[in-house]
Amino acid sequence: MVRRFASQVHKQASRLMGANLIKKEPAWYKAVLEHPPLPLPAKAPPPRTNYDLPHKKSLLQGKNTQALNPRPQEIVYKEDRIRKQFFQDHPYEAFRPVSLVENATIEPEHPIRGVQWKRLAQRGRNPTPDDAIRYAVNLHEAHGLSLTNAYQAAVAQFRSLRSEHLFASKIALMEAEHYGIEFGPSEMEKQYAKETRALQTWQKKAELDQAEFAARKRWKAIVGREGEPHGWTRGENYVRLWKEGVRPTYAPQITAPVLTPTGLEEVPRSADDITAFIPVASR
Description:
single chain; mainly alpha; two-stranded antiparallel ribbon; 9 helices
C-alpha cells in the first residue's frame, strides 16, 4: 500500500476494497471509521484581527480595498532628528572625548525638567551636545514651541555658554602662567614627541640595514704599497733589476733590525741566511 497521511489511510483502504485489491477487511478498519483521525491541519488557524481586515465603510460602499502593508512602521524619535541636524551644524562636537564608563546604577533624571527647565544654563555652565538636544525637545513638548524654534533657541544658548566657557578657560590659563605655574606638555605635544621617536627609530633601522649590507659585501684585500706614492714605473724597474740579477726580497723581516743588548742594530746577513728564509717555490 502506498504510504498516506494518517487522515487518509482509511479512505485509501476503502478504495482498494472497492476495487477488489484487498480481499479481506483490515482489523482496524471499523475502529478507524468510528474514531477518525484529526483533519489536517491539526490546529485551526487563528482568526483574523480587525487590523488586517478591510474597513467596513469601504465594504458598504463597494470599493475594492488593498491589503494593508504588514511591515512594522519605523520608530523615529524627535531626539534623533534634532541630533542629526545638530551634528551637521556642529561637526567638531563629535570629536570631543566622552566617558563611556557605566556606573553600577542608572543615573537618575535631573530634577530640573519639564516646565521648570526654561534655560539651558540650569543644567550647567558647560553643556554637552546631549544637554542641548534634550533642552530642544523639552521646549517643544513642555513649552509648546515648534521643533524649529526650539532647536534654534537651544543652539543659540549652547553656543553662548560654550563661548563663555572658552574665554573663562583662557583667562584662567593666563592668570596661572602669570603667577608662575608651569604646565606639562599638552596632548598634541605628546603626540608629536611620539611621532618624532618613531621617525628616529626608522632612521636607525636604515643605518643598521646599510651597515649589515656593507658587512655582507665580498672581502677585498687592502695592500699597503711601499715606496714613493708616485713611483710606479709600469714594471720597468722590476725588469731592469731582473736583468741586472738583483733578486727581490719577499721577507722584510729578514732585513729588519735585530734587537741587541745595545739596542736596535742593522745586522748584515749572508746570502745563505737570506735564501734560507725565501720559500722553496720562489727559489
